[in-house]
Amino acid sequence: MASLRKTWGTMRIVALPLTRAPPPQRIITYYSFKVVPPPAPPPPKESQSSSWLPKEGVVKWAAYKVDSTWSGWGKAETGSWRLRVFEFGERFLDKLDFEEGALKRIDVKQAPPTNVPADLTGAEREEAEAAWAKLEVPLFYPPSVLSGPSALSELRAFLQKRIPQHNKGFWTYLLISPLTAPFMIIPIIPNLPFFFCAWRAWSHYQALRAARHINGLLENGKIVPAADTTLDAVYADVAADSKEAPPADVEKDSTSKPTMIVTRDSLGHAMRALEMKPDEAKDVLRACEQAANRIR
């Protein structure tokens, strides 16, 4: 429906299980969330020259400034405090939960809404209701590893875990931030503790907001499982090397340990099939390493 794209963007979710585990243990899954925004309306002519605000919005402008500043620190002179902070930060990012990184990439404002916007009236509301009634967010999954019901069940468990975790993280770092005020008296060097706490609070908030949004779509029945056989290539190589492993639907001893069902090389199939950008490809490999460390 044409009005669907004009009102809000479209979305797709891809589930890539990283481990196999017997019930009641949960498997570890990497979720790729992609939002395609609706066509942007042309800005009013008078605002093009008179507005002092950045056209992409203050939040996106600030995020770009932070990213460019951080990248600049990575190119700082060897031995400088900026480079040392950058190197420490990169090591910390590698340890940051990959689930948080995947969630906070979601632009909730451009994603399909969890319900019809309340500010719409008349014919505009009727059109939006008709579009929302047909709205479906596909949840693609590898049929050799998951079934449709299990894909939905795993996504629901994922959200039930992440929502309280990010809610706690947001409030914790938000309340700690004022305690870093004494560091402002140190000359030359920025108040890094404050910026760190503020960044962690913002990161948790972005992930929390996204997780709640996905959960709203799920609870309203808008997320629909869709088998994608092209994703089976991610698991084919590992399965061939582990022929003694039972199929995913075979009951196993609940005391056995979870096992990895992907490798860095096999995930290359997913990167190509999903046309992942470098940042997301890096996140997938980080997820593989973290999953391996968690089950050791």
From TrEMBL:
GO molecular function: hydrolase activity
InterPro entries xref list: Mit_KHE1
Keyword list, A-Z: Hydrolase, Membrane, Transmembrane, Transmembrane helix
Superkingdom of this protein's organism: Eukaryota
An example Gene Ontology biological process: potassium ion transport
TM helices/strands, residue ranges: 170-189
Cellular compartments per GO CC: mitochondrial inner membrane
Organism: Mycena venus
Stated name of the protein: p-loop containing nucleoside triphosphate hydrolase protein
Presence of keyword Membrane: yes
Tagged with keyword Membrane: yes
Matches recorded under Pfam families: Mit_KHE1 (PF10173)
